[in-house]
Specification:
By secondary structure, the chain is α/β, with parallel strands linked by helices. The protein folds into 2 domains: 146 residues, Quinone Oxidoreductase, Chain A, domain 1; 140 residues, Rossmann fold (3-Layer(aba) Sandwich), CATH 3.40.50.720. It is built from 10 helices and 15 strands. The strands form 3 sheets. Strands 3, 4, 5, 6, 7, 14 and 15 form a 7-stranded mixed sheet that branches. A 6-stranded parallel sheet has the order 10-9-8-11-12-13, sandwiched between helices. Strands 1-2 form a two-stranded antiparallel sheet. Helix 4 links the parallel strand 9 and strand 10. The longest helix has 24 residues. The structure holds NADPH dihydro-nicotinamide-adenine-dinucleotide phosphate. NADPH dihydro-nicotinamide-adenine-dinucleotide phosphate binds next to helix 1, helix 2 and helix 3.
């Protein structure tokens, strides 16, 4: 038997409820690899799945947790053997398939990646989906060429923003972080940010479609009015990696920055990344993210902390990353 955080839905009222429950291996969904999970993390999507489901959960009862790292317990796939350390992000695990808020998980071998050398399971989840996405964003910006000058990171004190700040600073870029929480300025500076902007300095309805050219690149975790404004402030030919919608899904922008400044808007999706890209991104993380900075970015939680943490992340109140020690 093992413990898992299970969300149920009452069909009549449509209300969801969640609790830590004891399950057996026979309860797990089909898959070719069974993993003894060590750590998972709390992401924005998990907040939705822990609460109302947010339209993401495909079936109840459900175990959220869109990522995990652990040790292979049994495998029917020749690529993995008992004892191998693995990491999983994406593939709608924790949404359409039971996820990582559980001491055991059973998944398709194709969804896993061997843990890269130099990372342990806890560090891998300090990075987690948010950090993996931050690295995909950096790689996308690099592929399109990062200009010379300051690189902007929106939602900087959140999970994606914190790790993007640490990676880009470590790669020698001058990072400006945008945050709605001025009290996180010291934290962001400790991750390598050179300048901090208050959210309301950027997060305004655009007045003019083009403003002075400021940013050599941008990782945007916020979307909405903030992204619209940033588009008009990018340097000629610069790229924005659009990651999230913490500030809204509507984009009240014009096409002018694309037409007159040749701006690239690069959509980043961490869920359906092919295996080779996932391996490449995890290898880059193990090389280019200063691991000694992970401790200051993370807090550790248990399965029973999840209802509160799920609500907190939806309100944008989490600083950095929350690791879930599923065995604590
Ligand atoms: P977090 O909640 O950790 O961070 C989001 C940050 O955005 C907050 O910390 C806050 O930063 C800022 N923010 C929150 N609400 C608002 C608002 N109303 N207006 C402006 N800024 C706001 O989430 P993550 O970093 O984990 O994820 C960020 C986004 O990226 C989410 O939308 C998530 O769904 C998405 N995502 C997308 C992925 C993909 O594959 N494309 C993968 C992972 C995440 P601050 O306090 O510094 O202002």
């Amino acid at each position: 038997m093992f413990d898992a955080f299970v969300v149920n839905k009452d069909e009549e009222s449509g209300k969801t409820s969640a609790a830590v429950q004891s399950l057996s291996l026979n309860d797990l969904p089909p898959g070719d690899v069974t993993v003894a999970v060590e750590y998972s993390t709390v992401n924005y999507k998990d907040g939705l799945c822990v609460g109302s489901g947010g339209g993401l959960v495909r079936n109840y009862p459900h175990i959220p947790g869109i990522d995990f790292a652990g040790v292979v317990e049994s495998s029917e796939d020749p690529r993995y053997s008992t004892g191998d350390k693995v990491v999983l992000t994406g593939w709608r695990v924790g949404e359409a398939h039971w996820g990582g808020f559980s001491q055991k998980a059973r998944v398709k071998a194709d969804w896993l990646v061997p843990l890269p050398k130099g990372l342990n399971t806890r560090q891998a989840m300090a990075v987690g989906t948010a950090g993996f996405t931050a690295m995909l964003s950096v790689m996308a910006l690099e592929n399109n060429g990062i200009k010379s000058g300051p690189v902007l990171i929106t939602g900087a004190a959140g999970g994606v923003g914190s790790i993007a700040t640490a990676i880009l600073s470590n790669l020698g870029h001058e990072v400006t972080g945008v945050t709605g929480r001025p009290e996180t300025a010291d934290y962001l500076m400790s991750l390598g940010a050179k300048n901090i902007l208050a959210r309301n300095e950027i997060n305004e309805t655009i007045k003019r479609p083009l403003e002075a050219e400021r940013w050599a690149g941008c990782v945007d975790a916020v979307g909405g009015a903030m992204l619209a404004r940033v588009l008009g402030q990018m340097q000629y030919g610069a790229s924005v990696a659009a990651v999230g919608l913490a500030g809204g899904a509507n984009l009240p922008a014009t096409v002018i920055p694309f037409l007159l400044r040749s701006i690239n808007l690069l959509g980043i999706d961490s869920v359906m990344q092919p295996y080779d890209n996932r391996v490449r991104a995890w290898e880059r993380i193990s090389k280019d993210l200063p691991l000694e900075k992970l401790d200051s970015m993370t807090q550790i939680a248990t399965l029973s902390d999840l209802p509160q943490l799920g609500a907190d992340i939806l309100k944008g109140q989490i600083k950095g990353r929350v690791i879930v020690d599923v065995n604590a």
